[in-house]
Amino acid sequence: MNIVFFLDEKKREIEKLLNGKKAIAAVSGGVDSTVAAKIVGDVLGERLLVIYIDTGLMRLDETKNVEGILKKLNLNFKILDASEEFISSLNNVIDPEQKRKIIGHKFIEILEREAFSFGAEYLIQGTIAPDWIESGGGLRDKIKSHHNVGGLPENMKIKIYEPLRDLYKDEVRELAQHFGIPHDRQPFPGPGLAVRIIGEVNKEKLTILKKATKILEDKVLNYKMKPWQYFVVLLNDRSTGVHGDQRVYGYTVAIRIVESIDGMTANFMKVDWEFLDEVSREITNKIPEINRVVYDITDKPPATIEWE
Predict the structure, then answer these.
(1) What does DSSP assign to residue 300?
(2) Across the beta sheet with 48-54, what order do the strands follow?
(3) Chain mean pLDDT for the chain
(4) Pick from 279, 214, 218: nearest CA to 62
(5) Which strand (E) or helix (H) includes residue 285?
(6) Phi, psi for residue 233 in degrees, rounded to 5
(7) How far from 120 is each of 23, 127, 169, 195, 257, CA to CA, in Å?
(8) Confidence class of residue 152 from pLDDT cuts 50, 70 and 90?
(9) CA proximity to 179, closest of 78, 74, 77, 44
(10) Is 7 helix (H, G, I), strand (E, B) or coil?
(11) Residues 51, 25: contact at Cβ < 8 Å?
């Protein structure tokens, strides 16, 4: 991709569309939304307000990491803690599509509130091609609703602008490198850990999953592995196990590590057995609520990268 040509085209597009107008940009901490915010922010300056919403569904220390990145990019930003609002809205919700739509609607509800306060007419989102393709773009079957596409309400008051809509993940990472945005950060779903918890989402499960995710991420870093994406899924099923000399009935987690180029297809990573052994032992030793660890050896297709 010719980055200079792309950015020149986008600058002209933004100046024409947002001439004299204000906008807000929703960032999740992922590469896509951060790049989209930076592209628009370089044109609008203080007329763009970048908003990061702490949903309580993020990884450990994610909010602190995002704040550091936004400061370095010299963007006008605001961080909102809406964790109670999001987690309570997911009470008794099991269906993954329903989770995505609830989270998407809640995002828009909060963002429209902030947009009104700021006087913004547009919402900038980091939607990329795989998002709208999987959400049923054109004549395609819907695979899953991405919260920034299929999860949005129909009666929105704010207009949407998606500067990266026609790009794939490898192209967005080129742009991230150009801006000095950490481009090796793995993709993270908009609905966060809610779609990595099979079944109902609650604070207890989120705490368990955050701890297990941190263990996996640290091990990947220690082994100097460079997969496309890697994460832990907390399953709804429990199984019998033993801690010390006592019977326990604990959770099962699945480890998912994949290699890909653009996210449209992916292969499970054939990782070292010693690595998996260490991950499993540390998770089950440090998190007593988990007593079984399995490894997902399914490609995309037939599976998607995320479980929900």
Answers:
(1) B
(2) 77-81, 48-54, 23-27, 122-124, 159-161
(3) 90
(4) 214
(5) helix 273-286
(6) -115, 130
(7) 5, 19, 28, 30, 39
(8) low
(9) 74
(10) helix
(11) yes
- Could you tell me if 297 and 267 are in contact, meaning their C-beta atoms sit under 8 angstroms apart? no
Mean pLDDT of the 46-57 span: 96
SS3 of 260, please?
coil
Judging by DSSP bridges, how do beta strands 267-268 and 246-259 pair with one another?
A: antiparallel
Total number of residues shown for the chain: 308
Nearest Cα to 105, choosing from 164, 191, 36?
191
Q: State how far the Cα of 66 lies from the Cα of 29, in Å rounded to an integer.
A: 5
Position 136 scores a pLDDT of: 52
Of 30 and 58, more confident: 58
Is residue 297 scored above 80 in pLDDT?
yes
Q: Which two tokens stand for residue 141?
A: 């079957």
The distance from CA 200 to its chain's CA centroid, rounded to whole angstroms, is 19
Q: Cβ of 305: how many Cβ atoms within 10 Å?
A: 22
User: Which is it for strands 246-259 and 229-243: parallel, antiparallel or unpaired?
Assistant: antiparallel
pLDDT-above-90 percentage for the chain: 76
User: 113: closest CA among 20, 22, 24?
Assistant: 24
pLDDT computed for residue 142 by the predictor:
44
Lowest mean pLDDT among 61-65, 128-132, 153-157: 153-157
Beta-sheet pairing, 48-54 with 290-295: unpaired
Cα–Cα distance between 39 and 110 in angstroms, integer?
23
Distance between CA 277 and CA 306 in Å, rounded? 23
The tokens for 75 are 């963007």
Q: Residue 150: its pLDDT value, please?
A: 42
